[in-house]
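ligand=nicotinamide-adenine-dinucleotide
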Amino acid sequence: MRKLKIGVVGAGSIASKRHLPEYAENKNVEIVAVCDINEQRAKEIGVKFGAAKIFSDYHDLLKEDLDAVSVCTPNYLHAPVSIAALEAGKHVLCEKPMATSEEEADQMISAAEKSGKTLMIGHNQRLVESHQQAKNWLKEGKFGKVYSFRTAFGHPGPEAWSADGAESWFFKKEEAFIGAMGDLGVHKTDLLRYILGEEMVEVAAMVETSAKDHADVDDNAVLILKTESGIIGTLAASWAYKGKEDNSTVIYTEKGVLRLEDDEKHSVIFHKHDGTREELSLGQIQSNEEGGQVSTGVIDHFVDSILTGKAPLITGEEGKKSLLVILGALKSEETKQIVKL
Ligand SMILES: NC(=O)c1ccc[n+]([C@@H]2O[C@H](COP(=O)([O-])OP(=O)(O)OC[C@H]3O[C@@H](n4cnc5c(N)ncnc54)[C@H](O)[C@@H]3O)[C@@H](O)[C@H]2O)c1
């Protein structure tokens, strides 16, 4: 079978720690091209992963004979690069948050429809084993009625992660459009929608910049959410959690409390209403602290969906719905009102 030819736009941390290593492990692809406006970085990373072609302008990369492109750029470029790639006939895996507005997300979805190519969004939290387990159990009705949830994704911030450190685009509104809520919060709006199998219908939010004097985006946000069946809960997204990352989700149900990624040893703990507990130690969730050792499964899933022609788990529509919750939270902070989604 012919290998899929891959190009990667943006050669920063997510590309070098996740996308490229995971493409390199996948037998059905060949890494052909890498692009970054920082040409030196593009060269170093490109050579490391065996890319024959190096570019500093993504338009040039898109002229190449490629089957698929990963979009690993700052957020404001997700829509323009993805749309140009789809129009050039490439399948696209775009990082999250999918876009900076509903209009951009719609344009990406429509470009994918017109080209007949796959558009997938990099919401890797869906593929984490504990989250898959929770989704399956909830679907089977193991927990009875779901009453509430709380989820958090917080760490000290992207300084130690981004290729440009404290000078990173992550802190600049023009390039990021949103801070911790778009970096971390959108992962959890996507995860909650996926695990609960329901859409969010209302959001109220308080959004602050508490810890980063140099940032002109949010770094500390708390959302109150309500789903279509009336489940209420909270979501926290923060770059102000010093010391240890929090990437946990707790679901409160009729039959007990389900804790996901809330314990160093057991990725799943179910405290039953009779006082007993069930524990599972599944593959650990990927975190900034651990670097790139653990595969996210995102690349394999993207490649499989191209090869089988099946829609990926995280389509453009899914990415858009998860983004809309975050946009609603921004509106709630601005208007000091509960926002209907
Ligand atoms: N799925 C996840 O868990 C996850 C984790 C981290 C980051 N991300 C997302 O990945 C994307 C990239 O983040 P990162 O952490 O790699 O950031 P980063 O700062 O480490 O890297 C971004 C790279 O993009 C390059 N770039 C900027 N403009 C460009 C252009 N016009 N053309 C080509 N390259 C350009 C920069 O030079 C830099 O090398 C963001 O959208 C971010 O939200 C996702």
